[in-house]
Amino acid sequence: MRVAKEVRDDRTVLSIQEDRIDAHNSGELKDLVLKTLEGGTKNVVIDLARVQFIDSSGLGALLSGYKNATLRSSGFALAGLQPRVRSMFELTRLHRVFDIYPSLQLALSA
Amino acid sequence: MGWAVIEMCETFVNLDIVVPNQTRYLRLVGAIAEQLAKELDVQEDTRDTLAFHLNLALTEAVANAIQYSSAANSTDSVRICFSVEDAYLSVRVYDHGGGFDLAALPMPEFDELRERGRGIFFIRSVMDSVQYHKTDSGNVLEMRKKIA
Fold first, then answer.
1. What is the dotted CATH code of the domain comprising B3-146?
2. In chain B, at which residue ranges do the beta strands (DSSP E only) sit?
C-alpha cells in the first residue's frame, strides 16, 4: 500500500495514496498505523481524500488503529472521506465513533 | 489468470468469471461489477449507486469465498456468475470451503467495535435478498437485486 507519511507539528499524517482499501491491502494499513503509534506519536491523522472505496476489512483496519490509539492515549482522526467511503461509516454507525473532518486542513487546524 | 465469457442481449445477461483465490483480484472483480451496472438497463439517476453497491457486495462476497477456499485449498479459484432475468440481477459466488449458516449470523453489535464481522451485513444492506446454500459444485452465496 502506498502511504505518504508526514509529521506536522505534533501530528503524524498518513495520506493514503490508493483509490481502494480492501482485503488485499487493509492488513498493511493496520500494520502501518500500529507501527506509527508504536513509534511514540501522540496524534495520528489518516487522510482518506484519495480513497474512493473501502470495504469491511478496511473499516476493521481503521478500527484497530482507533482502539490502539485510545489505549495509548493518542489522538486518532480521519479526514477527507469521499461520499462512498462516508456511507460505509454511516451504515455501521462508525461515524459516531471516529473523529472525522471534511478535509486534512480542517483536521490539522482542530 | 482469470477468464470471462460474456453473452449479452437486451433482456438477458449471462456473465461467468473465474478468478484465482487471491485478494489481488478483488479490484478486478469490483471493477467488473461497476462496469456491469453501466451496461444494465437501469434509470440513469440510480446507476452510480447501483455500481457502488454491486462493487461492495462482490468485493465482500469474493473476499469471503477467498478466505474459505484458501483454508481448504491454496490453488483453488472462485467462480462468480451474473445473470439478469426479468427485473432482477442475480449474482452467485461459489466457494469450496466448509460453508457457514447465513441465518445464524448475528447483526453486528455496533457498539462493540469489533474489527471483523461486517461483510455480510454490508451485502444484506445493499442487495434485496441474500441466500447461502450447498450445491454439487460447492457452496454458493446468491445475491439478488431489483434493477427495474
1. 3.30.565.10
2. 3-8, 13-20, 77-85, 88-95, 129-135, 138-146
